[in-house]
Write a structure and sequence with these properties.
10 helices; 9 strands
């Protein structure tokens, strides 16, 4: 009888503890965490596995994954977390679309845009968290951009971490803007993704980490399958003409830029879900230098000036 009473007391204690403290619920915990910073998730989202690279250096022939991790770690440290401790480890990540929106920067400040929150966990412990403004530009949960925290342009922060030097490419760094455009299409014709990457600016590559990102993925590691780079079977450059009347828009991350009208004869692998067709196409290339001493790189490719 005494043993039975002891068992009942233990069971009752466990039950009361569970009721008072409650079993750990990751979504509830995430919601409480985000509310501390004035945000709330629209709905529950699933966690997925993410392996944090052990090396955060980058190179000119691939996507700048190391830049991604250095950036989000810098923003996580604004709220007291250091992802660097978990290099080489597989952790859990979740991306929440938030109920709140944030205003744009500069001329876009009169508009508001959607915001995501990203949370990393090792077991039940949060090890990093940040925001994605308009599903791309990262900022801290305190609404601080890198420019805000460093009081200097983003490209200066990039350079200070050695990323511009790591992006150095002997095959493309000394090319003129016109030669760079030829190199870009030469890479497409050869199926040489490393060459294509080496013609693109670090700003473009940074954006590519986020553009059309699949679900349950923190960042892209390659070109999209329907991109111009992967969906083109062959391309012949017919003409390249500089727009002498081009007036660059103000951009603190670009030292100098030029615009070129490029006419190309293209054969596509597929015309599904793309805005161009095989045949003669005209593109407008912005070729830019990130800093005074930077090489020319492709800053954008558009179908209109």
């Amino acid at each position: 009888m005494k043993k039975f009473l002891i068992f009942v007391c233990i069971a009752l204690t466990i039950f009361l503890t569970a009721c008072s403290g409650g079993q750990f619920n990751v979504y509830n915990d995430d919601t409480k965490f985000l509310l501390k910073y004035g945000f709330s998730p629209e709905k529950e989202s699933p966690y997925f596995d993410v392996t944090i690279p052990s090396d955060w250096k980058i190179q000119s022939t691939s996507m700048p994954v190391g830049l991604y991790w250095t950036e989000v770690n810098f923003l996580s440290r604004d709220i007291g977390y250091n992802i660097e401790k978990y290099k080489g480890k597989t952790v859990k990540a979740v991306i929440y679309r938030l109920n709140e929106k944030l205003p744009g920067q500069g001329e876009s400040s009169k508009y508001t845009y959607p915001v995501n929150a990203v949370i990393l966990r090792d077991g039940e412990n949060i090890i990093g968290a940040w925001l994605e403004f308009n599903a791309s530009t990262p900022l801290s949960l305190k609404k601080n951009y890198i420019e805000t925290l460093t009081e200097r342009p983003w490209i200066d922060w990039v350079a200070s971490h050695g990323f511009l030097k790591q992006m150095s490419s002997p095959s493309t760094d000394k090319l003129t803007p016109e030669e760079l455009i030829y190199a870009y299409f030469n890479g497409i014709n050869k199926g040489d993704k490393g060459l294509i990457y080496s013609t693109l600016s670090i700003d473009v590559l940074h954006d590519m980490l986020y553009i059309n990102r699949p679900a349950k993925i923190l960042y892209n590691t390659d070109f999209e399958s329907n991109s111009l780079e992967l969906n083109t079977k062959s391309a012949t450059v017919l003409s390249i003409d500089e727009n002498k009347s081009y007036v660059p828009s103000k951009n603190r991350n670009i030292y100098e830029s030029k615009e070129y009208k490029v006419t190309v004869n293209i054969t596509l692998k597929s015309e599904d879900n793309v805005s161009i067709r095989s045949g003669r196409n005209t593109f407008f290339f912005i070729i830019a230098k990130s800093t005074k001493d930077s090489p020319w790189k492709i800053e954008s490719i558009g179908t209109g000036p």
